[in-house]
Amino acid sequence: MMRYIFTLIPILVSCSLFGQEQKLTSGGKLKPEQANMDIRHYTISLDVNPAQKSINGYTTIDLIVGKPTHVLLFDLLDSLNVSQVLVNNKKVPFEYKDNLIRINTANELPAGKANVKVVYGGKPHVARRPPWDDGFIWTRDSTGHPWMAITAEGTGGKLYFPCKDHPSDEPNEGVNLIITVPKEMVVAGPGLLQSVKKHGETTTFHWKTNYTINNYSILFNAGDYTVATRPYTTCDGHNVPIQFYVLNEHKDKAPHFLDIFVKTIREQEKYFGEYPWAKEKIGMVETPHLGMEHQSMVAYGNKFKYAKIGGEDYDWLMHHEFGHEWWGNKVTAKDWADYWIHEGICTFGDALYIKEFEGNDAYIQHWKQASVTFQNKIPIVMGKDIDEESAYNGDIYGKGAFFMHTLCYVIGDSVFYPAVRKFATSPKYTYDNLVVTDDVEQFFSQESGRNLKPLFDLYLRSVNKLGIHVKALPGNKYAISLENISMPLPLDITTDAGTKRMVIDSKGILLTSKTAPVIDKDCYYLKKLIIE
């Protein structure tokens, strides 16, 4: 998610500098009426009028009702107008207020499959400062062509279509997006393009994905696009097209952009496994906002501004948002309380690019610089049933990433890197199967053969730093022990004899050195030294 800024590659500066002007949010405690619904598929069919800044059409929702009910409940921002609701092709009464559509059926709806169609339209909420807040963006490119985009991560899909707006439920059978725009516009969406139909002054684009997709990735962008393509063979040998929907005015920049993109894809696959949507496409679209991780059509608005990593051009925005194809889109938290799984692990992946192309010394230097940027005012994981607005803070990026850096050090490279890849490729934790922090903790504990709960608790569920007590004793001796964690940890200690990795616990060790020991010189821990 691109609601943050890096000073360079990729040191976090808190998004609290920007703030959100509206408290539109998603998730939280799941409503009982919605807990009874399992969403299977959405079809969203809309006419988009950039001149009027309006949308009109319908959404159909295929779902499974868990137990018989008279009530169905869907989220939709009440800035729109709902004219009709049908359940299983029959008109039903409904109430639309407080951003909810409440459907009360006269006859009890039995358990099993159901279909709901909502006909609606109007002027959707407009983003004031995208992507730091959500909404539609209506603008023009520098040549005067209309250009529109949507950002919806914080608010959710209810921004423009009726849905069950909760991270715990995704449409397992995918989505159809049927979007009609003025003829001079091209629509970019998730999945595969099924058809393009011209109707005089308008054109209809039909996009379809068969994959499970998170709620806020169900959207589209439209503009004066041309499609720059390139074939790609994944690490598992599957052929997948790369498609970059770039503004015509910038099409000359596409070849070099794709060169950088291919390098990014290869590096991410090395650590996290095959690109997740290999049956469809690798997609990226130029947007008027900075960027967002929309599944198989990542939003890119960094304006082709490149830094240098390993002497070659690198785009941090491209790399981070594309990393969310694994962390956020394929591996998805079922509760916003576990937001760090998306942002922290993805940001850790950004640091791996430095390690890959500039080496370990640059990687270590990155973490030394990053470690002083965390606010550390509230825990990264604050319980359960948290809404997006409450869960969101800058530390889910940087501190969450640093936790992965620490975890790697604690369990060792030979265990950690295969485990990360295994987690990102396991059916148990991906696609339809959503995860929470406990899943991550238990998985790495199993892979390492150690109980890692104390480490997870310290970094993710508290704001404490690792306390390391160093006591000087007569005869050039030093007693070194851990203060606030109930597990032994490796620790690099530099003495007059050099640097040695030792295992320390609360009982501590005693060592001899003519010089004061330097603890954790390469910054593998967020720590507080207690010297006496």
List keywords for this structure.
532 residues; alpha+beta; Neutral Protease, domain 2; Immunoglobulin-like; Zincin-like; five-stranded mixed β-sheet; 10 helices; 21% helix; 35% strand; disordered N terminus
Distance between the termini: 44 Å
CATH architecture of the largest domain: Sandwich
Mean pLDDT: 95
Strand order of the largest sheet: 7-6-10-4-3-13-16-15
Low-confidence stretches: 1-22
What is the name of the CATH class of the largest domain?
A: Mainly Beta
Share of residues in helices = 10-25%
From the alpha carbons, calculate the radius of gyration and give it in angstroms.
25 Å
CATH topology of the largest domain: Immunoglobulin-like
Q: What class would the helix/strand composition place it in?
A: alpha+beta
Shape: globular
Major β-sheet, in short?
Answer: 8 strands, mixed
Percentage of β-strand residues: 25-35%
* Integer count of domains: 4
The CATH superfamily of the largest domain turns out to be: tricorn interacting facor f3 domain
The DSSP helix count reads: 10
Task: Tell me the total number of β-strands.
Answer: 31
Tell me about this structure:
- The protein is an alpha+beta fold and 532 residues long.
- It has 4 domains: 5-18 and 334-460, Neutral Protease Domain 2 (Neutral Protease, domain 2); 31-140 and 157-223, Immunoglobulin-like; 224-326, Zincin-like; 466-531, Immunoglobulin-like, CATH 2.60.40.1910.
- The chain has an 8-stranded mixed sheet. A 5-stranded mixed sheet has the order 18-19-20-22-21, with helices on one face. A 4-stranded mixed sheet has the order 29-26-25-31, with no helix packed on it.
- Strand 21 and strand 22 (298-300) form a beta hairpin.
- Helix 3 (316-323) packs across helix 4.
- It is globular, with a radius of gyration of 25 Å.
- It starts with a strand and ends with a strand.
- The model is unreliable at 1-22 (pLDDT under 50).
